[in-house]
Fold this sequence. Notes:
By secondary structure, this protein is α/β, with parallel strands linked by helices. It folds into 3 domains: about 5-125, NAD(P)-binding Rossmann-like Domain (Rossmann fold, 3-Layer(aba) Sandwich), CATH 3.40.50.720; about 140-300, Dihydrodipicolinate Reductase, domain 2 (2-Layer Sandwich), CATH 3.30.360.10; about 345-420, Alpha-Beta Plaits (2-Layer Sandwich). About 35% of the residues lie in helices and about 25% in strands. It contains 15 helices and 15 strands. It has helices spanning about 15-25, 25-35, 65-70, 85-95, 105-120, 140-145, 160-170, 175-185, 195-200, 200-215, 235-240, 305-320, 360-370, 395-410, 425-430, and strands at about 5-10, 35-45, 60, 75-80, 100, 125, 155, 245-255, 260-270, 280-290, 290-300, 345-355, 375-380, 385-395, 420. It has a 6-stranded parallel β-sheet, sandwiched between helices. Strands 9-8-7-10-11 form a 5-stranded antiparallel β-sheet. Helix 1 (about 15-25) crosses helix 12, helix 5 (about 105-120) runs parallel beside helix 10 (about 200-215) and helix 13 (about 360-370) runs antiparallel to helix 14 (about 395-410). The longest helix has 18 residues, at about 105-120. NADP nicotinamide-adenine-dinucleotide phosphate (NAP) binds near residues 80 and 190.
Amino acid sequence: MSDVVHIGMLGCGTVGQGVVRILQETAGTIERATGHRLEITKVLVRDLQADRPGVDPALLTADPEEILGDDSIDILIEVMGGVDPTHEWLVRALGHGTSVVTANKQLLARHGPELLAAAEEGGAELRFEASVCAAIPVIKVLRESLLAAEIESVTGIVNGTTNYILSEMRRTGMSYADALTQAQEIGYAEADPTDDVGGADAAAKMAILASIAFHTRVLIDDVPYSGIDDLMSDDVDIAHELGFVMKLLGVARLVDGAVSVRVHPALVPGNHPLAAVAGADNAVLLESSMVRQIMLSGPGAGGTETASAVVSDALSILGSRPGSFLAGALVDAGRPIAPEGSLESAFYLRLEVADQPGVLARVSSVLGDSGVSILTVLQRGEGEGARLVMILHRSPEAQVREATRRLAAMPEVRAEPVVITVVGSGEASS
Length: 430
Ligand code: NAP
Ligand code: HSE
């Protein structure tokens, strides 16, 4: 493959525009890391006049032949959706040896085996990470890392739109209809959201996951499903009162050696790891006696998030070539190493001090002189002395260490101060 990799695209909507933007913004990084320059050759759309910010109108075409008939295209990215004519077009491209990246779960859950066979015959690759759980690399993990892990069950929140609707109804008291409208506006929902709320989107994704996890051909027709379109908001509230969270779950498991896959609303105990997955996030819990439990979670829908998985798949295709950049040495992007102590954080500080008047004021003034401010203070008498515990506002670590050295030198401080980083509070991460 030459240094320039020609990309053809089918579709330029929510996900497609994300792909164009990521390829533009990361062109330098990609070229440095892989030795390849990814160039979009043509992009198929229906309406040439529609508003597509950041997309060069000269790239657009409404004629599929300009892409399908172009032998110079190395990788075809399909982000157009639908089963027809997409199915026929992808079989044609793969048969000609053009590798394909697709985000199209409905197509894969119906014609996946046939598409993979066409890829094999044509000597091409078919990659589809973005078809399930958007940015979460669950397919790669199942296909590669856990290939021989004898997975026994896959339980997942695999539809972002419904998780968003259920979360927002509970969080804000919003109506089902308003939450769905918001999910559509943000770009989580399918062009026709019936598949999202009715469960067909999750069923397609679970068919794909079950096929890979259990090394078995599972198609969407093998997956009974129901959605959240019949649920009452009262059910969501009552579930909460009982200590449960309502989720649309995909459940795939081995039952007496047979594969069972279903999608349905379910009550999840409030302390279950899946209960905390909110908004359009997805999560997949993989279980096997070998690895016990592995949960992958993250953004499950959205243009940029999905596009990032699409671009990663295109790079994986380049990386799978013999002698590719993935087999090579580490890439040096020329970034400097951050000096020790430059990281900002909030801190916990414990001091054992003499119980004398004015000690707290002197400690505060040492911290203040070092530019470190106090968020909370706790003081407790401990025999002859006192224990001072403080949470310090976010500041550079070096500043806090310097203040601590000065505190340690105070005659009233009786033991080496203890400093521990606080992670994950708003203070530490804002
Ligand atoms: P979208 O916003 O509706 O975009 C679809 C694009 O494809 C549009 O540019 C449309 O052209 C074009 N298109 C559709 N049918 C066409 C046809 N017959 N001929 C030529 N062009 C056609 O959809 P999307 O949200 O980006 O989703 C694309 C795919 O990604 C779907 O398979 C979806 O299931 C999948 N996906 C989406 C998400 C998400 O969060 N949105 C996440 C994961 C996977 P016009 O612009 O002219 O209408
Ligand atoms: N409509 C899908 C969802 C997009 O809401 O999960 C991601 O596949």
